[in-house]
Amino acid sequence: MKKRKTYEGFSLVEMLITTVILGFLMLTSALVLSTLIRVSTTSTNKARVRTESEYVLEMLRRTLRTTDPSNVRLYQSNARTFNFENGNITEISSFDEVTVPNQTGNEIHFKPNGSTGWICLAFYKGVSTDVDNSGNVNGYILRASKPDLADTPDDHRDCLISENENFVVLNSRFVNIENFTIQLKPTVEKNKVIQLDMLSSAVNWYFGNGELLNRQFQRQAIIKTETIIW
User: Fold this and answer.
1) Which residues, at least 6 apart from 20, have a Cβ–Cβ distance to it below 8 Å?
2) Are 101 and 74 in contact (CB under 8 A)?
3) Of 28, 57, 205, 222, which is most buried, counting CB atoms within 10 Å of its CB?
4) Could you tell me the pLDDT band of residue 124, with boundaries at 50, 70 and 90?
């Protein structure tokens, strides 16, 4: 009589245990991979915030130092907003020049040494629907070069909102300029001392905002015009 063959296999309990272990390993791998991607993205965004903030401040340091103080203007136009999607800037009735020390503005216009045109730099908040992933309204720094700008209040007012506006946004879509103030400091000289305070942050942030992982990046620069006045 032939002996019947028997086949050995996995029991139902063994298969369930194996499935649970494989599922746990796959879930752990997915969580680790997701965390690594978030850390990499956060590091990249943080570096981008630092680079773009330093670029704006360094550009102002280099140009303002050699600018004639009589060709430096500060203005207050905080009520203006900038629509990143269509490039429109809202018009307002309030546009005041800052001439008293310790007052702050959000626009600075200057004519670099040796140049015949003006550079207008301004900080505007975005529209109410333009927010980061925490719900904060994004802010932008705009720069326009006007070779034919006449030195009158109306011309300075329209520097960034004229019909043929030709400005560039200095911060990318990934960087939120939360605040940027320009303050005229008191001085006994004819040269001007200007204090710049910038608070920026990453638009996309996936971690808490603490001492080790701070979303915000704050910088200050104090610039003095060094043109010799005879």
Assistant:
1) none
2) no
3) 205
4) very high
State the burial class of residue 3 (Cβ atoms within 10 Å of its Cβ: 0-12, 13-18, 19+): exposed
Residue type at position 76: Q
Backbone angles phi, psi at 81, to 5 degrees: -130, 155
The rounded distance, in Å, linking the Cα atoms of 213 and 46 is: 10
How large is the average pLDDT for residues 137-162?
Answer: 87
Question: Of 190, 161, 195, 206, which is closest to residue 44 (Cα–Cα)?
Answer: 206
Q: For residue 83, how far is the Cα from the chain centroid?
A: 15
Reported pTM: 0.80
Judge contact between 108 and 72, C-beta under 8 A. yes
Give DSSP secondary structure letters for 25-54: HHHHHHHHHHHHHHHHHHHHHHHHHHHHHH
Local structure of 17: helix, strand or coil = helix
Q: Which residue has the higher pLDDT, 169 or 228?
A: 169
**Pairwise CA distance, residues 54 & 58, whole Å:** 6
Looking at residue 69, what DSSP letter applies? G
Radius of gyration of the chain (CA): 28
List 139's β-bridge partners, or say none: 125
Contact call for residues 202 and 48 (beta carbons, < 8 A): yes
Strand partners, 131: 137
Per-residue model confidence as pLDDT tens digits over 3-31: 666 666 667 787 888 889 999 999 998 88
**Amino acid of residue 66:** T
CA distance 166 to 146: 8
